[in-house]
Amino acid sequence: MRRGAVSLMVALAAAGPGLVPGPAAPAPARTPVVFVHGYNADPGVWGRMREDFKASGYTDADLFSWGYDTSQSVNEVLSGRFAAYVEQVRARTGAARVDVVAHSFGSLVTRWYVKYGGGSTATVGHWVSLAGPNHGTSTAWACALWSQACRDMTPGSYVQKQLAEGDETPGAVQYATWWSNCDEVVNPDSSVPLTGAVNNAAGCLKHNDLLGDDAVSRGVRAFLTG
């Protein structure tokens, strides 16, 4: 194999999942949006909401869906990988900041990055949590024996304590949450709202139904562009 081909393969591997290296773009008209799925899910869960965003004027070049191994640690592994992905998006789009929309467990991964990884001061404009176990959920005990991610979601875990310490919504980031009083995964419902965030009641929706609900989708778009 020629040296040039090897170099190209190395560059592609370094770009991470979903992004291929390319020249930096000028600053976009819209802030790029990074969607982050929850536990035992994948980027495909965002299909309906991505279509809603495109119908309202966003393009595929503005929208990114990060995929990751949800069995791993929030603070030791995943937040760092998310930080690297954000840097790839910024380099690709030319944007100074990104907006983050997270569902469920993805809320903890992205919050850790915002609070402890530099996102609150430089790289995140808006942060949205849909049904995030932001103060833990008792249902996570069911998988805590074999999954580090589940242990991170349990009430009183190291991750929960660190995220709750001090300011729950630090920096210049604008924060919002959506929660349901019929959520069968996040228990109690009051786990989702954060002090300092715009906390929205989504009505009686199941945990995953927040991903495809029209009212929630409209609310998220209005929050990001308001």
Structure explained in plain terms:
The chain is an alpha/beta fold and 226 residues long. It contains 8 helices and 6 strands; from the N terminus they run H-E-H-E-H-E-H-H-E-H-H-E-E-H. It has helices at residues 3-14, 47-55, 74-93, 106-116, 119-123, 148-153, 158-164, 214-225; strands spanning 33-36, 63-66, 98-103, 124-130, 174-179, 198-201. A 6-stranded parallel sheet has the order 2-1-3-4-5-6, sandwiched between helices. The longest helix has 20 residues, at 74-93. It starts with a helix and ends with a helix. Mean pLDDT is 90; it is low at 1-16.
Number of strands: 6
Helix content: 25-40%
Kindly, what is the distance between the CA atoms of the first and last residues, rounded to a whole number of angstroms?
Answer: 52 Å
- Spatial order of the strands in the main sheet? 2-1-3-4-5-6
Largest sheet: 6 strands, parallel
Helix count? 8
Tertiary shape: globular
Q: Give the rounded overall mean pLDDT.
A: 90
| SSE ordering | HEHEHEHHEHHEEH
Structural Rg: 17 Å
- Structural class designation: alpha/beta
Strand content: 5-15%
Unreliable spans: 1-16
